[in-house]
Amino acid sequence: MDIQWRKSSKSSNAAGSDCLELAEHDGEILMRESDNPDVIIHTTPAKLRAFLDGAKEGEFDNLA
């Protein structure tokens, strides 16, 4: 399986730099942390879009 991982242009390439990486594969969005690349979260574009919209609107600001 050839997956092309992408990370934000704002992420540092410095050693020890942790960032979230994204890829698209078979209609799913894959996410992983650069410091733990063996753990991959699978979601759909619609679910990721809904999460990002909620984060932008402050929906998760009061989580304790």
TrEMBL record:
Protein name per its UniProtKB record: DUF397 domain-containing protein
Organism of provenance: Streptomyces scopuliridis
Lineage: Bacteria, Bacillati, Actinomycetota, Actinomycetes, Kitasatosporales
